[in-house]
Amino acid sequence: MTDHVLVERPDAYPGVQLIRFNRPEKKNAITRQMYARMTEALTAAGTDPAIRAMAFLGTEGCFSAGNDMADFLAFAMGGSMGGEVLDFLRALAGATKPIVSGVDGLAIGIGTTIHLHCDLTVSSARSVFKTPFVDLALVPEAASSLIAPRIMGHQRAFALLAAGEPLDAAGAREAGLIWKIVEETAVEEETLSAAARLAKKPPEALRIARDLIRGDRSDVLARIEEEAKHFAAQLKSAEARAAFEAFMRR
Ligand code: COA
Predict the structure, then answer these.
(1) 182 lines ligand 1 (CB under 6 A)
(2) By three-state DSSP, how is residue 48 classified?
(3) Residue with CA at minimum distance from ligand 1 atom 45
(4) What's the distance, CA 23 to chain centroid?
(5) Residues 26-39: tens digit of each pLDDT
(6) Does pLDDT of 195 surpass 80?
(7) pTM (predicted TM-score)
(8) How remote is the CA of residue 28 from the centroid of ligand 1, in Å?
(9) Which of 52, 167, 239, 250 has its CA 20 to 30 A from that of 18?
(10) Which domains does the chain have, with CATH numbers?
(11) Mean pLDDT taken over the chain
(12) Is the CB–ligand 1 distance for residue 111 below 6 Å?
């Protein structure tokens, strides 16, 4: 298992499981192994009564630059996609415990869309949220094509997901993608303490409240599958391959 994803239960924040991207030399780009590790952690948290809230964090100045481009290119060249990404998205969308995320800096691709499945997202003012799917000849994923228009309206969702326009932290808060903006140095503490406060609440009441607020998730899970079919087909396209090769050549 890779240490590019660290899974911890910090003593200072009882009841919280932290999943931390830890590949700063590659801007926390997420490989298949990293997805697998996160799925394992989410799945274990679902059945462990000692874990009452989950948290996602990146490293200083970078949440994640999204899916690993080398993995994209390997698939575009005919390799196997594997089930790691889809398994992760299913586990994330189906999670039954509250999720808090903390962003400082870059949040690209799934580094942005992951927050649509989080219940509270804390961000520094310098963070930038961006999904260049179409520029890479890809399509939105993680049911973002369904959830984003619901929370931010068609125009802002289109600007983010189809036009690839970046959202700064203030714009992300205004659009309802994130909860609050704090000092860079406070992102971790605010994220983990928000998760710890949730972990202290009566778990069954919190679970029901979260389910009611999130609503029925069958449409979200179905959209993940629908997007994934298009995503896989586009990954094999000549235009996507050219975009990945251009990135790898830089
Ligand atoms: N996959 C694989 N490696 C990545 C990566 C990704 N998604 N994003 C960054 N990296 C790597 C770079 O290749 C570089 O590696 P190297 O030092 O071995 O050459 C390292 O991380 C640092 O990135 P670099 O591009 O030099 O940093 P930057 O600050 O100039 O730019 C980004 C940062 C994130 C803006 C830029 O790397 C980028 O656009 N990445 C791709 C993001 C993306 O499109 N993700 C997929 C979304 S669907």
Answers:
(1) no
(2) coil
(3) 66
(4) 15
(5) 999 999 999 999 99
(6) yes
(7) 0.98
(8) 9
(9) 167
(10) 5-248 (3.90.226.10)
(11) 97
(12) no
Query: Closest Cα to atom 27, ligand 1: which residue?
Result: 27
DSSP β-ladder status, 99-103 and 53-57: parallel
Rounded CA-CA distance 117/88 in Å is 12
Q: Which two tokens stand for residue 90?
A: 């299913």
- Which of these, 155, 154, 143, 107, lies nearest to 127 by C-alpha position? 107
Q: Are 103 and 124 in contact (CB under 8 A)?
A: yes
Check residue 2 and give its pLDDT.
64
Among 79, 64, 69, 205, CA closest to 127: 64
If DSSP codes are grouped into helix, strand and coil, which group holds residue 206?
helix
DSSP class of 163:
S
Question: Tokens at residue 92, please?
Answer: 């994330």
Give the number of the atom of ligand 1 that is nearest the alpha carbon of residue 26: 21
Residue type, 216: D
Collapsing DSSP to helix, strand or coil, 72 comes out as helix
Among 127, 94, 129, residue whose Cα is nearest residue 108:
129
